[in-house]
Amino acid sequence: MVKIFKFKNIVTTMLSGIFLLPMLSLILRTDIKSWSQALHMQRIYESIGITFYILILTIIFNILIGTPVAYTLSRTKSKLGKVLEILVFLPIIFPATVSVLGVQYRFIQFGLIETTLGVAIVHTVMTLPYYILSMKSGYTTISDNYFKLGKVMGVNEKQIFFKITLPMLKKSFIVGVAMIIMVSLVQYLTTFIIGGSEVMTLPIMLMPYMVDGGSKMGAVYSIIYILVTFISVVLAKSIINLLWRDRNVRSKN
C-alpha cells in the first residue's frame, strides 16, 4: 500500500510539473514593465468583457438547443436518429473555416457580420457537438423506468425534467459547459472571419503577439488568457453547484 501511495504521488507530481511548466515558462518571460503596460491598456478589459459576453450567449444557446437534441439522440434507435447524430457532429468533422465560410454569406444578409451575436452563433455551432455528446452520455445512464414511474405517479413532463432528470445530469452538465468554455475560447479563425476587427476577443488580441515568439507582451496576454479560461470554468462549476444545491433545498421543502 505504501509503495502504491508513493507511486501515485510521483505520478501526480510529474503530471503537475508537465502542466505547470508552460505557465512557469511564460511567467519567467515577463517583467514588471510588461505587466504594468498590459494592465493599463483599456482594450484588454474590453476584450475580456466581450469574451465573457460571447461565452455566456454561447452557453445559453447550447443549453437551449443541445439539451433536447441530446435527449432525442439518447432515446432514438432508428436510422433517422443516426443521421441526426452525424449532422450534429459535422462541425467537428469538417475544418472550422469551411463551416464558417459556408454561413458567411447568410450572415451578411442578416446583418450578423462583425457583431457579437454573429460570433456567438458561430461559437455555438463549433461547441454544440461537445455539449451534446456530454449530455447524451448523461441521458443514456438514466433508465426509462424513472420516466415511466414519474408518469404513473401523476408527474408532468416539466416536473419529471426538473425533479428526476436534472439532478442526475449534474456531472454531464458541468463537463458539457466546461467543454463549451474551452472550445469557445480557442476560436480564432471563426471569430476573425465573422467578427472581423469589430469583435475583439482575447484570442484575437493574443494572435499578433504569438507571431513574435520573444514578445513579453505576448507572454502576459497568454497568462491572462489562461487565467480567464481557468476562472471561467471554476466560476461556471460554482454557479452550477449553487443552482443544484438551491434546487435540492427547495425540493426538500
UniProtKB/TrEMBL annotation:
Pfam families the UniProt entry points to: BPD_transp_1
Entries under InterPro entries matching the protein: MetI-like, MetI-like_sf
Domain spans labelled ABC transmembrane type-1: 48-236
One of the record's GO cellular component terms: plasma membrane
This protein's UniProt keywords: Cell membrane, Membrane, Transmembrane, Transmembrane helix, Transport
Cross-referenced CDD domains: TM_PBP2
Membrane-related topology note: Multi-pass membrane protein
Cellular location(s): Cell membrane
Residues annotated as transmembrane: 7-28, 48-71, 83-101, 107-133, 173-197, 217-244
Biological process, per Gene Ontology: transmembrane transport
Signal peptide extent: none
Claim: Ribosomal protein is one of the keywords in the record: no
Family the entry assigns: Belongs to the binding-protein-dependent transport system permease family.
Identification of the protein by name: Thiamine transporter membrane protein
